[in-house]
Structures are given as structure tokens and as C-alpha cells.
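Reviewers of the previous submission asked for a worked example of the structure-prediction workflow described in the proposal, so we include one complete record here. The input consisted solely of the amino acid sequence. No template or homolog information was supplied to the procedure at any stage.
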Amino acid sequence: MLSGSGTGEGTSAASSPRAQLAAARRKFWGWGLEGQGLAVSEIEQLGAALAGRLGIDGVRVEEPPRVDELDLLAPRLAPPASLEATFSADAYDRAVHTYGRSFRDLVRIFRRDFAHAPDLVAFPRDEGELVSVLEWCSDAGAAAIPFGGGSSVVGGVESDVGEGYRGAVSVDLGHLAGVLEVDRDSRAARIAGGTLGPVLEAQLKPHGLTLRHFPQSFEWSTLGGWIATRSGGHFATLHTHIDEFVEAVRVVTPRGVLQTRRLPGSGAGPSAERLFCGSEGTLGVITEAWMRVQPRPRYRAGASVSFADFADAVEAARELAQSGLHPANCRLLGHDEVLLSGSGDGSHSILVLGFESADHELGPWRARALEICAGHRGEVREEEGDPAAAWRAAFLRGPHLRDGFTRLGLVHETFETAVTWDRFWEFHQGVLDAVGDAVRSACGGGAVSCRFAYVYPDGPAPYYSVYAPGRPGRELEQWDQIKLAASEAILALGGTITHHHAVGRDHRRWYLREVPQLFTGALRGLKAELDPAGVMNPGVLLQPGRTVTHDDEGQRR
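From that input alone, the workflow returned the following C-alpha cells.
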């Protein structure tokens, strides 16, 4: 085994670790660092481009808030003297840790609404300090909200914990970062949970290795966050979720530290490490994980295939998913998705295909994939300008575009799901009908696009985007009406409330209807064992509550 370089040295707890990882501070009101993102002129161009499509007469660009404008409530808590250096009550730190980066979050940020700002932010410098922080939160009756990169789009890091808590603490894992150890023989690496995506890949690169997990939030999300939310990553087929790469985990719970055993596989009962995949900070904090890594790709082959008929494209995607070719990229953009992402004129759907390997040339795989597409009337796009590259650029800029849409006063958000192939067409039409009606009712008009983010042998993972005009001061209510319609349709038509965005607080009520009640009871029992005071991320997955918990129908449990 080889030791990797870590980044866990202690620093002043009053300054955010994010400021130490980059030259500029992170924005508290949007994506990325201060000074990054779309210029006002670019936002105006974006608005002008969408004005005709959405029936908007003019656009306005709202100015972002400043920290000195925020009216934060005074902290209700004071840390113990022994941990004083670990905590911050600084207004900037509290503002950064108030919200994730969903549309609902951004609208409230621009309204200067920080009612749920955490009372304190903890920056534990090592695992021992983290243990002490969670012990203090349990004793003090303070909610503990794990915070990795803060990129949640489902309310996963918001300190909206209900009553019964003396306050809320955002627990920032930025100091617990770095690739700690590399096992070349087993092709695995021990990585700290607070490691941001770019840092993780940069430290694996000298070893010729990669985790190759690139969610859209890659720049501002962490390994621990990926595991806790069952993140979807780079691969559109086969190894789509982070779960597939987890070999073992180390978790700090209010009851103590839990370390699972490193094994390539085991049939010994329910998987202990899988228990924490998707736990969303409700059971403890993932501080380290042994991850299955891979050699960096040397060979690549790809193509963009256009289809005049979306139905043909869907059938091609299904056959590819069932072919055993396992393309790394197999993302289908519907006609409207092509148009609204700037990947084309919207006259065709586009299937973005890609293969990669560290071991062998990929010509035969590409040839067979194109043969499958041709069998469904797909045509390889050879003209100048790569639509796949255009869509990829829009995808990577997506978080900055989201900021821009919000500043323009537009309603723009996404929702995603998964469903089996046999139900797809009824499901897809039902979702489009329900969401289209809600968009017209709430906004007077708009557009809904669809792409397949991932495909499996038994079904696709459709990803829908909504673009609509906002009414000043009513944007949240407009989106809530649309989101309600989408979520109810998804559940009624047999889909999942989330394929990879996680549950958080926003999806909880539908999640609790999706899973069996007996399972929910078992999950409550598990949480009570690991978190007896009920302080770990209350309101995520389950109803918040320290002593008596209730389900979403108000029944005492």
C-alpha cells in the first residue's frame, strides 16, 4: 500500500475551509466562488433568448444579496469552552451553511430570507473533534446537520428541523479531506469524507487512478455527501450510482464510531456499508470510505445520433441498455431538451454515446452501438459542430445557469425519476400532462423538456426540466404547485420520487408513501439505536423529533 497526501491539517476554525481550498471565498448566494459565474450581460442574453419561447415581454436581472443585508437571528446556542475554537457564529459562515442550491433555496436567498440559518457552524479538525461535537449536540438538544459541499437540491442541508431542538448546528466536514491511502494491488483508495470532487481526482491522478464519479455538482460536492445521498455519477449504464464503488465505510454516530470491513463481496447478512448509502446524515457522519478506483481511461470512442422520432430514440436506448455493451455515456435528449439546451434546433432527438477503457480499443463496441441505432432510424451526426459537446457544456454550466434563471425571475427547476420500460410511455405522457397543466395554471405557460440521464436493462431514468415565467414575489408558490403535480404523478404512475437527487426534506412525504410502512418502522428503530437523542439531520427521510416521533399523517409512533 502507498500513502496518499491528505489535507486535514488544523487551521483557524473561524475561517471556512472552503476559503482555504481556493483563492476566493465561496458565494453564499449562488454557485461557485465569488467572481465566478455568468456576467450580467450573459444573463441578459439568456433572458432574451428565452423571452420569445416563454412569452416574456422583458427581463430584469436582480442583484445578489450581501452579507451585511441579512437579518440573521442571534444564535440560541453557545459552544462549550472546550470546543470554542471548533465553532463559528460568523454571519458569512452561517449564511453559506443555510441553504443548498435548489430553485427554492435560491429564491429565498434572493429574498434575503435566512430564517433557518444555523445557530452555529462547526468545523471539526479531526475525527476526535467530530465525536465531541456530536456528543455535545446530543447533550444540548441541538440538531446536527452534516454539510459536505452544500450542493443539495432537496433541502438536505437546511436547518429546518421543527420544534423540540434548542438550536441547530451545521457540521462542516471541510477539514476531514484528502486521499489518505492507496492500495494498488486491490485497486482501492481510502478517502476522507469531506473531500471535494476536484481534490479527490487531483490526488488520485499521480497514481494513475480515478474514481470516475462526476455528478453535475462535482465541483462542490464531497465523497461523504455522494455516499450519503446515493449520488448518480459519470456512467449512464452499469455502475451508475456511487454505491457500486463503496468497499467499506467509517461513520461517526452519536453512539460511537462504526467501521465496516474491507471485502470484495460478502453474503453475510444485510450489507453494513450499504446501510449508510442513502442515509443522508440521519444516522451519523461518514468520515472515511475505502473506494474501488480504476485506471484512467486511455481509449475513447463516441458518437451523436439523431432521431426524427423520439419513440425511435427511446427504443434504441432500450436496446443499447439491454445489449451488454455498457456504454459509459448513453444519454438521450428529447426534442425540447435539444432546443432548450442549445444542442440543436429541436427538430430531432439526440442520443449521446460514449465508450471508454483503460485496456482496449473500442471500435467494435461503437460499431455495434451505431448498428443498433441505425436499426431504429438513427443517423450519426457528421456536420460541423458537435451537439454532444454543446449539451455537455450546458450541463457543466447548469448550476451557473440556474443562478441566472433565478436572477431573471424565471421559474426553472428539474425533477428526475426512474420507471420500468413496460410502463414508460404511459408514465411519460402522464407526467407531461400533469406538469404541463400545472405550468399553465401556475405560470400561464412554459416548457417542459425530458432527457434520459441513465438507462438500465429494465428501465430508464427520465430527467425533466421546467422553464416558465415567474411572477414577482410568487415564484415559490408557482414552483410548489408544479412540484406537487409532478410528484403526485410520479408516485401514481409507478415511478420513484428520486433516482439520484436524494430525499432530503423536500421529498420526504412522497418517500414515506413509496417505501413499505414496515420498512419505515425499521428505519426509525435503527435511527433510535444510533442516534438516541434524535439530533442527526432531523426532518430528512423521517419526521423530525427528539422524543416522540409522528408520521406524516400525524400518528404517534
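The chain has a mean pLDDT of 92. We consider this example representative of the routine output the project will generate in years two and three.
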